[in-house]
């Protein structure tokens, strides 16, 4: 078999050291995760996690833990206390990264997380680069590049549909069709090369159409892969969807009316809005820019809506989760109500103070102070939203680039298969036919990252968050 279609030579990148990173999102949470990976990590576990108190039977040697794939209850010595935690042990090579992996699931406290991380760094671990865990998984053959990219998509996905599409690829959803395409091409190549080996005299010429079955199977599998790329959802109509979030009576509907010109009930009684409505945000024409759709809905937080409105609230939650950005409206005259509102997980948001004519906006991290009746702060709000959306659009462009890479490789493979089919049908020269088959196989290897231009991996993994 020519080397062009075999497994690639081992990647020259060094993947030797121990890296560590918080694997849970920044912010308040009940639990947080510190994740580390590296060859030989289990034998040195206590050097990197010196605060751990291990149960009987988990300790191995002076600094290590036993190499059994399990989750153990442990304790963390911190501030004169012993805190309960869980230590998940994944010995390499049967781990996510292909190396030893440890996950410490600890109480979600930022100071504690900082100290645990600082211990590991002081012991010589390195803070993981964005995507480094996934990159190691790829380099150790635990994931192909399609699946590795999809890990990034899955983490970034904010709509259920986008998450499902990414999850299919993470689970190796493209692997079936890829395997069939590759198998058919290798069979065809093997047959063609058997003919080539008999160069003199008794050359075994192929009959016209002898490879037709293999080539048709390869073509079908490639078509299936191409369709899979097409159904991965992007932002359907190109509009950005922006949802107003906040406690009842925060002035959301007042802001909605002002920004869209659409009608909405406004009343001093909390709980006025019960359904949700949307309308385009009327802003200064920005030529070529994607339209913005604003969504108003019921107030959130404790006691916001009674049980009758549960259905409306569920619908709104769905709309909010599918939005691109939230505007969290915090009434300056009752900041405690705003603090109780938690935006949907994963939704980026901008916080604004509303009703600032009634009370000065409390010092805090809100970007904009609004007094809607007097038109104060509306420009600033639009600017803040535009800035956040620009970052999102950049993100999306990168995902678009990944799709373009996949489609280009698939098209190259399909074109080579089409040329091979016409050569086969005409009983054309075997060496040319074999060359086309190799070209198709090479294109597939580019797709899965088995052969890759140097900078491709940097580009793919750079957009990950740290800890993935
Ligand atoms: N003084 C003042 N009152 C405001 C301002 N914004 C809204 N209000 C008033 O606050 C009350 C509630 O406003 P809405 O816009 O209905 O509030 P909402 O957030 O949509 O409330 P729900 O639909 O109940 O969740 C109304 O009486 C508004 O007139 C403001 O900037 N200043
Ligand atoms: Mg309202």
Describe the protein's architecture and organization:
The structure is a single chain. The protein is of the alpha/beta class and 468 residues long. It folds into three domains: 17-141, Probable tRNA modification gtpase trme, domain 1 (Gyrase A, domain 2, 2-Layer Sandwich), CATH 3.30.1360; 151-233 and 415-462, Four Helix Bundle (Hemerythrin (Met), subunit A), CATH 1.20.120; 240-392, P-loop containing nucleotide triphosphate hydrolases (Rossmann fold), CATH 3.40.50. 41% of the residues lie in helices and 16% in strands. The protein has 13 helices and 15 strands. The chain has helices at residues 45-48, 110-122, 132-139, 145-156, 160-170, 175-197, 212-230, 252-260, 310-321, 335-339, 378-425, 430-448, 454-462; strands at residues 19-22, 31-38, 52-53, 59-60, 64-65, 70-78, 81-90, 100-107, 126-127, 240-245, 277-280, 292-296, 325-331, 349-354, 368-369. The strands form three sheets. The protein has a seven-stranded mixed beta sheet with strand order 3-6-7-8-2-1-9, with helices on one face. It has a six-stranded mixed beta sheet with strand order 11-12-10-13-14-15. A two-stranded antiparallel ribbon has the order 4-5. The longest helix is centred in the last third of the chain and has 48 residues, at 378-425. The two termini are 37 Å apart. The relative contact order is 0.12. The model is unreliable at 1-15 (pLDDT under 50). Bound molecules: guanosine-5'-triphosphate and magnesium ion.
């Amino acid at each position: 078999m020519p080397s062009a279609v075999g497994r690639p030579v081992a990647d020259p990148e060094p993947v030797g050291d121990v890296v560590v990173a918080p694997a849970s999102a920044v912010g308040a949470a009940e639990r947080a995760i510190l994740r580390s990976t590296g060859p030989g990590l289990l034998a040195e576990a206590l050097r990197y996690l010196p605060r751990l108190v291990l149960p009987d039977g988990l300790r191995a040697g002076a600094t290590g833990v036993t190499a059994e794939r399990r989750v153990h209850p442990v304790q963390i010595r911190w501030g004169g206390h012993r805190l309960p935690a869980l230590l998940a042990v994944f010995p390499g090579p049967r781990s996510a990264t292909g190396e030893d992996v440890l996950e410490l699931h600890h109480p979600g406290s930022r100071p504690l997380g900082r100290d645990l991380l600082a211990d590991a760094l002081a012991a010589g671990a390195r803070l993981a680069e964005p995507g480094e865990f996934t990159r190691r998984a790829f380099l150790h053959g635990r994931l192909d590049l399609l699946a590795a990219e999809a890990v990034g998509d899955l983490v970034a996905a904010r709509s259920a549909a986008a998450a499902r599409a990414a999850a299919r690829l993470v689970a190796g959803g493209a692997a079936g069709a890829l395997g069939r395409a590759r198998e058919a091409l290798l069979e065809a190549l093997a047959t063609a090369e058997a003919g080539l080996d008999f160069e003199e005299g008794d050359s075994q010429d192929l009959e016209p159409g002898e490879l037709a079955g293999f080539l048709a199977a390869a073509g079908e599998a490639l078509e299936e892969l191409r369709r899979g790329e097409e159904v991965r959802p992007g932002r359907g109509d190109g509009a950005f969807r922006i949802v107003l979030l906040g406690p009842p009576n925060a002035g959301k509907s007042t802001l909605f009316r002002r920004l869209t010109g659409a009608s909405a009930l406004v009343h001093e009684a909390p709980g006025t809005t019960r359904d949700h409505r949307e309308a385009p945000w009327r802003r200064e024409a920005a030529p070529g820019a994607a339209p913005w759709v604003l969504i108003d809905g019921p107030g959130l937080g404790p006691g916001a809506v009674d049980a009758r409105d549960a259905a409306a609230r569920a619908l709104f939650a769905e709309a909010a989760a599918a939005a691109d950005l939230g505007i969290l409206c915090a009434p300056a005259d009752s900041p405690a109500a705003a603090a109780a509102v938690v935006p949907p997980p994963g939704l980026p948001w901008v916080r604004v103070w509303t009703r600032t004519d009634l009370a000065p906006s409390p010092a805090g991290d809100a970007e904009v102070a609004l007094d809607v009746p007097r038109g104060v702060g509306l420009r600033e709000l639009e600017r803040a939203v535009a800035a956040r959306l620009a970052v999102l659009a950049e993100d999306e462009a990168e995902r678009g680039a990944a799709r373009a890479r996949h489609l280009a490789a698939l098209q190259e493979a399909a074109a080579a298969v089409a040329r091979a089919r016409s050569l086969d049908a005409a009983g054309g020269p075997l060496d040319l036919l074999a060359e086309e088959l190799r070209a198709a196989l090479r294109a597939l290897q580019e797709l899965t990252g088995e052969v890759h231009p140097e900078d491709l991996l940097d580009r793919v993994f750079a957009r990950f968050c740290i800890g993935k």
